[in-house]
Amino acid sequence: MPDPMTSSPASPKTDLRRADINPDFWYPLAWSKDLKRGKTIGRRFGRFPIALVRPEEGSVFALEDRCAHRQVPLSLGKVSGEAVQCCYHGWAYGRSGRCIDVPYLGKGKLPNGVKTYPCREAGGMIFVFPGDASKAESVPLPPLAQVDNPAFKTRHFSPVVKCHYTFLHENLMDMNHQFLHRRQMGQIKARFLGQDAGENFIEARYSFARTGNQQPLAERLIFGKHHDDPTREQPVEEIVSIRTTYPYQSLKIHDKDGDLIMELFSVYVPNTADGMSTQTFGLLSVLRPKTPFLIDLIWPALGIFTHRIFEEDREIMELEQNAWRELGGDHNVEVFPIVRKLRDLLAANGAAPGTDTTAQAEVSREQPADPVVV
């Protein structure tokens, strides 16, 4: 019998890196600022290409990014009124996904259309519900850090990481990897304080002890200077909580008085058919200092600092993915209990590999009863 402390919970039959993300949630596919009026852009949710369309008037809508005629991406088309026209022959589709015009046919001979996806905007992001559309109204959008709170300043980030989305959940949840960031963070050690768990979430709490006297400038400007005694370990008084509420992840930092001073929201969206590349959408909210305009002065330094940290994470996660590929599966030996529970949570809530769990929209792609010959 394998030792439970040295074996991974993912068996060969349930390799975590082969599990698809569950589509029955709201996922951002683009930033609102990137889609102008009268334009369309193409994005992917795993195997599914999706066109986001912002008409001259009205809200954004989302369609399958394939014209029903020759399968050309609709995201290359022209927005005309409340519809998008395919760039090839000008077939037009409205927000319902139905074909509403073929320029060289009579109105009575229009073919059926393409799939449509529920679509919303919030927090400066365009969200799509890729799964069973009948569930969209009952599934809430996730809490988006403090993006609407004027007491906080929020920055956006959206790097692509060439790995399965589960690696990103594990990376953030396991604060024991601070050794990786020693050049950016100085010498600190994570101390695990406890956890909470439920059917669809798991949370870990940490504090940090600084074992050296190097404190990064960005950290000092945001949290204040920590007066270190070089003769002994000094605790960092902030408490860090990391929570995966499937499929989203958050990180919150509270000060010694229990006040929230920083919050991170992240969601990881597979952007290739094989699921081995992930588009990250993140919101990082920082409490504004009492000194006016200080946050604006330190904002560039914070951006550089967080970018360097993430680049170190990106490199290591892509190395993990490369090892998985070379070894032909998941050979990780996980001993940290909180990560073992996280892996179980991700496996339990994910979709079986290759399962088409997206429900068909009202509009079918089947040929009409009177086929159109073109």
TrEMBL record:
GO molecular function: 2 iron, 2 sulfur cluster binding; metal ion binding; oxidoreductase activity
Gene3D superfamilies: Naphthalene 1,2-dioxygenase Alpha Subunit, Chain A, domain 1, Rieske [2Fe-2S] iron-sulphur domain
Region annotation Disordered: where it falls in the sequence: 353-374
Keyword RNA-binding set for record: no
Keyword Iron-sulfur: yes
Domain (Rieske) ranges: 26-128
PANTHER family: 3-KETOSTEROID-9-ALPHA-MONOOXYGENASE, OXYGENASE COMPONENT (PTHR21266:SF60), IRON-SULFUR DOMAIN CONTAINING PROTEIN (PTHR21266)
Protein's name according to its UniProt entry: Rieske domain-containing protein
Organism per entry: Gluconobacter roseus NBRC 3990
Native organism taxonomy: Bacteria, Pseudomonadati, Pseudomonadota, Alphaproteobacteria, Acetobacterales
